[in-house]
Amino acid sequence: MTHSFFLKEPQDRIGKKPSLILFTCHFNSEKRKFVYSTGEKIRPIHWNFEENRPKLKGSIKDSNSTAIQTQLNRYSDKFEEIEGLYSRINEDFTSKALKEAFNQEFKKTPAGKNLFFNAYDDFTREKIKRKEWKPSTIKRYKNIRNHLEEFEKNKKYKLTFSKINNRFYTEFIDYCYTTLDHNTNTFSRNIGLFKTFMFWAIKEKYTYNNAFTDFKKPERVITKEVALTLEQIKTIFEFDPKNKALERVKDVFVFQCLTGLRFGEMKLINERTIVNNSIIIKEEKNVNKEAREIPLFEISNYILKKYQYKLPLLSNQKQNEFIKVVFEKAEFTFDVEYSRTKNKEHEILVKPFHKRVSTHTARRTFVTIMKKKGIADKTIMNMTGHKDLKTFNTYYKVDNIAKVDAVNLAFGSIKLPKLKKA
Predict the structure, then answer these.
(1) How do residues 65-74 score in pLDDT, each as one tens digit?
(2) Other residues' Cβ atoms within 10 Å of the Cβ of residue 329
């Protein structure tokens, strides 16, 4: 039995409006023509009507022609596989059998739905059901889905698997850096998560288009961020914001500065997690890691006892919002520099200190102070839970005082010789 492909709306062969590509064959025993939508679209001007396939050469070929042809080949291969199977088992090869096989192989979606986003939803549901993601990962993948939907509207670029190509990558980079104002590290993380989805889509046979493997994930960069000194921690700890809610926010921030915990880990602390004056905490991001031990001292113990070993936590977003208010009231309003990097574009910006403070500042502060005191990286990483030295080093902020101390320590013993008389 032969099969072929044709355009639903050929538009006299020179049309520029995209048309659906349909699969067709004829079941003689049923006296019926079988037609099945491949879901792929192409402009008639880019279609080879003699060979019933996309034009693969020449100046008027579609930029997605190779990916579209790859998808059409999948239909041909599946058709021949099913026809051969029914021939071997000596059963009638029917249009119903072919339709069921196509629906199963190509994940046929209900009318009006987009296969690309339908696959993305299947992907997220699978990972959530298998408990493979923590809440923050689920949130990130939901954010990326939202970004992709907005990208479609903003760039007028209909997302299908066959259109995940170099043009998509170029437009998506521009959208992320220009419209969303993402920096390099955010884009790098998101493109990595997107590629994870695409690898899954190939494994599950939603697509055979692997053009995304050429998408480069930018190297993460170390940006210029703020970290507190010991004296600044003391100032914030002793500051009275005259507001109980802000006092709780301040205490949680100081506690994080003194322990290096991730904000989300502090909800795990209770009286049972305090053993021999240390916090014993199980890694939340990776349950296979050994428990970490973080020693307490006078101030950190005081904060825990003040709240009966249950820290008064808000959401991360609210904590970030209110800690800025605390620092503003404490007159941390002086300007500081910070950096933003978008691929090869690098700029130094200025903002008041209090506007740059977040929960991440506290963890960065812990690492920075410990490093300045000469504590070995391995010891600090054992407390913070870092396993990758490159990531760990992004938390260390070398300030001017540290640089002056380093130069004086290295060269301070050299005395200026007395000048000889002329």
Answers:
(1) 988 999 999 9
(2) 17
